[in-house]
Design a protein that fits this description.
single chain, 274 residues, alpha/beta, Metallo-beta-lactamase, Chain A, five-stranded mixed beta sheet, 26% strand
């Protein structure tokens, strides 16, 4: 297996977290193992890593019944073509995928070829924020607003004190700050920290505990200052690598530059169209 698998066990529920290699932006897919089925959260960036997850599900020996897409970004969406399960998403996320998903897929396919599908899969089931019981397990669906992106889904298992936070939190992986929502993102970190969740499963990097909230807030503070001081894309990238030299996911630093410096000419060999 090219990716890494971490298993979280809390009061009888097992969650298998697949973390892609750096080439796959260290993005996570979480597999919630219930007594007779698997529920998946997010689909990976490339089909190569999505298929590793499908192979792992076969080993678990339970059917995949649902795939939740937390937001429209390519690393969480484009691998969905490998999954034979209905796609579930918030209404706002579905609308965004319907609007721009095929364009995002086509652009990423043009860069990477057949490891990326030419079109994006579309959610067919709408997630309503609130509680739902799936096979005697309570799921809390939370709508995250104006953090990494405008709308995103988080999934809590309140009876097990586990929060699948996805891109509210990264862990030791460079963060996509392309939408620059520093203030509202910081408020969200404080808001969700107050909830009684003890185990956090991030969108990128390894699972952890509440300490990830502080680490994330620190990264955003440093990134905000670096962005305000940087002379351009190369300078910003160098500043963030110097501040967090041990962090993986440097491809995310390249990916965000067109959003952070839209009026600049391409002065960075690493800057990529998105």
């Amino acid at each position: 297996m090219l990716g890494e698998m971490t298993v979280t066990e809390c009061d009888g529920v097992r969650i298998h977290t697949y973390t892609a290699p750096d080439e796959g932006w260290r993005v996570n897919t979480h597999l919630i193992e219930l007594p007779t089925q698997i529920v998946a959260v997010d689909a990976q960036y490339t089909l190569r890593y999505a298929r590793e997850i499908i192979d792992y599900i076969r080993i678990l020996g339970k059917p995949l019944t649902r795939l939740y897409i937390t937001h429209y970004h390519p690393d969480h969406l484009l691998g969905a073509a490998a999954f034979a399960a209905p796609l579930h998403a918030l209404a706002e996320v579905k609308a965004k995928i319907d609007l721009v998903g095929d364009r995002v897929a086509a652009e990423e396919h043009a860069k990477h070829g057949d490891i990326i599908p030419e079109r994006a899969e579309r959610p067919s089931r709408i997630v309503v924020p609130g509680m739902e019981v799936i096979e005697n397990t309570r799921f809390e669906f939370l709508q995250l607003r104006h953090a990494e992106t405008e709308d995103a889904l988080m999934i809590g298992l309140p009876d097990h004190r586990v929060l699948i936070a996805q891109d509210l939190i990264y862990n030791a992986v460079h963060v996509f700050i392309g939408e620059q929502a520093f203030d509202s993102w910081g408020v969200a970190l404080k808001t969700y920290r107050a909830l009684p969740y003890e185990r956090l499963l991030p969108g990128h990097g390894a699972p952890g505990g509440p300490e990830l909230y502080d680490a994330m807030a620190h990264y955003l503070s440093v990134a905000r200052a670096a962005l305000s001081e940087a002379s351009g894309p190369s300078d910003l990238k160098q500043r963030l690598i110097a501040a967090f030299p041990e962090f993986s996911g440097r491809a995310l630093l390249d990916h965000q530059m067109r959003f952070l410096f839209p009026a600049r000419s391409n002065d960075d060999q690493h800057r990529q169209p998105c």
